[in-house]
Amino acid sequence: MPNPAENKLRLEEVVDPAVLRASLDTIADNHGGATPAARQAVLAEVKRVNAAGRERARAMLSDDGGGTLCARRICHLQDVITEALYDYASVHVYRVENPSKSERMTVTAVGGYGRGTLAPGSDIDLLFVLPYKKTPWTEQVVEWILYVLWDMGLKVGHATRNVDECIRLARSDMTIRTAILEARFLCGEKTLFDNLGARFDKEVVEGTGPEFIGAKLAERDERHRKAGDTRYLVEPNVKEGKGGLRDLNTLFWIAKYFYHIRDTAELVGLGVLSRRELALFEKAEDFLWAVRCHMHFLTGKAEERLSFDIQRDIAEGLGYHDHPGLSAVERFMKHYFLVAKDVGDLTRIFCAGLEDQQAKTAPGLSGVMSRFASRPRKIPGTLDFIEDKGRINLADADVLKRDPVNIIRLFHLADIRELEFHPDALKRVTRSLRLINTELRNDEEANRLFLSMLTSKRHPEIILRRMNEAGVLGRFIPEFGKIVSMMQFNMYHHYTVDEHLLRTVSVLSGIDKGLEEREHPLASKLFPSIEEREALYVAVFLHDIAKGRPEDHSTAGAKVARKLCPRFGLSPNQTELVAWLVEEHLTMSMVAQTRDLNDRKTITDFGEKVRTLERLKMLLVLSVCDIRAVGPGVWNGWKGQLLRTLYYETELMLSGGFSEVSRKERTAHARQALGEALSDWTEKDRKAYLKLHYEPYLLAVPLEEQVRHAAFVRDANKAKKQLATMVRTHAFHAITEITLLSPDHPRLLSIVTGACAAAGANIADAQVFTTSDGRALDTILINRELPDDEDELRRAKSIGRMIEDVLAGKAHIPEVIARKNRGKRKTKPFTVRPQVTISNALSNKFTVIELECLDRPGLLSEITSVLSDLSLDIASAHITTFGEKVVDTFYVRDLVGMKITNENRQTNIVARLKAVLAKEDDELRDQMPPGMIAPHGSTRRTRTTAAKAETGA
């Protein structure tokens, strides 16, 4: 691997080999070399040296910032300790005056240790190489060294083999082959190490290049698959993840195996890497090592995942500072992903080139025919590009320089002919990025080709991703270049901004091609009727392009759209449509998840903003694509149902079908329909039941559900149960339903939500109604967790029992929540400034209270309890979770059914709620009344409560 200048290493400042050897010799003189007292003294001394050396390496890392330097310093420290222990064991403990040929060995470093680099928490991989079979002497020396290293607290991987065994195992095991490839002599007999190296090159490496390359590429692909197959996860694995150190290792292994080199710098002379690419390699390696060493020092262990809870500290340790629009941690993580992208570019081009170069054909006539069939072929309609084994390549070296538009044409042709990219083509593109200038960006043909790729009926995401990986997309659209590798420091977004945009285009393409009908039935149904297909694709591609700026990204994004759309060839009307979609891309999602969709003003306000059916359809599809591309598990069927409800209600309004027609008549009709559905009941029972329900229930709940509830209530009455629950699952919506019948109580919503939190259930929605006899009929919808219906039903019944136990006073919510969430991941790395706003303009009948704060277990229970303390009747509550942040909306009235208009009372409400939101610890206050819930006649809850959440709140 590349070696920094030796004068920068300052190895003697970490540990001086002569000083350690002298100390151990003194111990041997004072205690006798092989005594227990001597061993304890040796252990104490090497522990002291190791701790001091590592602390010095940490200080030097903070001082010079050299990641590779730090890794080499720690490796040097380990070398000195290992060599000193070998010398002590062989000289003072198991000294042999006239050793036989079998009483010899070589201590060899392998793995990462063999490469000459160690992170603070890395394993120490040792190979003890013997000339023949084991002897008592070799076993004793190896055992003594290993036990001291283990007693030092080091993780040591080891093997003891003779040369024949090493060669035999290397032939059959690729992991052992790679370990020996990286073997580095530490101490012992050098001729034995040289013999192993010579035999390895001749008997293992020679003629097996293609086999090794294929195995390493397959190993890399499998590793990427396990890590999520993207380098843009916001909590990346620095060692094993895509674009991490292991990818650089793979590049070096292949180069060393195939080209027989010892240093990456030799690849420049071989023409494999340019000097610029070598510098990029070394810079990326140094940065990744700096991050990894900081992580290990900070956590005190071999932590390889760059998790949220350490990202801020690492950013501070590396000297990043806040800038307008981006925090220090976001700037650090953007740098990380840019480096990961560079690593991906280098390894992809290098490994693909070797793979192509090593493809062999069979000998004889079949080989001749195979070579003839695989000769490059002309692509019809162009002289600048050729097809080579299903890959597009350049016809000659000057194709891009002769006409820079060919940079864009390369990707366009790959799209329309569905070709892979030849590694030489990508390498030349990457080396020709300077040709992408203002003239090319404004070229009409180049922009026409780009729009064609973006709106392609084939695989637009794949082509755009290749353009992004090659650096073309960020150069051709500088506004996109600003968000390449940009992450947002929160738990909601799983990917970098550019990765999110490409995944959004992928979802849209799937809907366009009819592949998402099951997941997104309404969007799939509407898409063929959308007239401005191109504008929708452009809006999806641009919707987050202004992230990371000081001003709101939706507003800034609309400005970017007005600038770029004419360049892409869109008309003024299309441009304004795209700008509107970008500016409003969050509106439909937020209204659906945080507003009461049964409140007519919600629909009228949203409809006035949308204005046309075409914009409504496009905004729905954009919202679906945006949520779906945020990350795994963010989208669910319930969100789809909310969006569909908002769409259908708004469509009625925009098409003239929405009206306030006689709620009284509609209620009477609904009551009559329910009575007819209960025709098998006695007349007395039917009349009594129909008197139980108020207008909100009859208008909001589907008839089928009303019939189910009727049977449930009748069964509970017959059994004389005060508390009763029933459960069922909704697989399509990924929702499980728990229906509760209970005496009403002003704190009932707080108690039920607290019980759900205590049971570990994540609330997606809750319909809460009160009957005329003072009972509550609540339907709690929780996010599904288990794939099997029977398992999920058992889980739901358990949660139902928890709710019953809490209501009956058998369980204490704060204690259960604390026990349930003990050891779970906290949101401490994040800060969300608590906000509370009160509005009387969002509803004609209710005051709307909106809260924003950091999520924590039991939060909804605490908030609703405070609202009850304030004598507020909660008519509708919407709890939406975005990663670590919750946005809670409550529709409330006072106890006489009026809005909250008094300013002093509003100020008091805000202050009380902010006190709850600002609470930092996870311990919940005891807010539940002891014993059984209150009797009939308590404060009545009206209408429907829709509490929506993704995580326990």
Automatic annotation (TrEMBL):
Q: EC number(s) in its UniProt entry?
A: 2.7.7.59, 3.1.4.-
Q: Which residues form the ACT domain?
A: 737-819, 848-927
Keyword Transmembrane listed: no
Endpoints of the signal sequence: none
Give details on activation and inhibition. Uridylyltransferase (UTase) activity is inhibited by glutamine, while glutamine activates uridylyl-removing (UR) activity.
Which residue ranges are recorded for the region named Uridylyltransferase? 1-380
Record has Phosphoprotein as a keyword? no
Provide this UniProt record's keywords sorted from A to Z: Hydrolase, Magnesium, Multifunctional enzyme, Nucleotidyltransferase, Repeat, Transferase
Q: Where is this region: Disordered?
A: 926-953
All copies of the HD domain together span 497-619
Give the protein's cofactors.
Mg(2+)
A GO molecular function term, named singly, is: phosphoric diester hydrolase activity
> Which Pfam families does the record match to this protein?
ACT, GlnD_UR_UTase, HD, NTP_transf_2
| Classification via InterPro entries | ACT-like_dom_sf (IPR045865), ACT_dom (IPR002912), HD/PDEase_dom (IPR003607), HD_domain (IPR006674), NT_sf (IPR043519), PII_UdlTrfase/GS_AdlTrfase (IPR013546), Polymerase_NTP_transf_dom (IPR002934), UTase/UR (IPR010043)
Regions of compositional bias (Low complexity) in chain numbering: 944-953
Give an example GO biological process. regulation of nitrogen utilization
Similarity comment: family membership: Belongs to the GlnD family.
The protein's job, in short, is:
Modifies, by uridylylation and deuridylylation, the PII regulatory proteins (GlnB and homologs), in response to the nitrogen status of the cell that GlnD senses through the glutamine level. Under low glutamine levels, catalyzes the conversion of the PII proteins and UTP to PII-UMP and PPi, while under higher glutamine levels, GlnD hydrolyzes PII-UMP to PII and UMP (deuridylylation). Thus, controls uridylylation state and activity of the PII proteins, and plays an important role in the regulation of nitrogen metabolism.
Q: Relay the domain remarks.
A: Has four distinct domains: an N-terminal nucleotidyltransferase (NT) domain responsible for UTase activity, a central HD domain that encodes UR activity, and two C-terminal ACT domains that seem to have a role in glutamine sensing.
What this protein is called in its record is: Bifunctional uridylyltransferase/uridylyl-removing enzyme
Could you tell me which species this protein originates from? Hoeflea phototrophica (strain DSM 17068 / NCIMB 14078 / DFL-43)
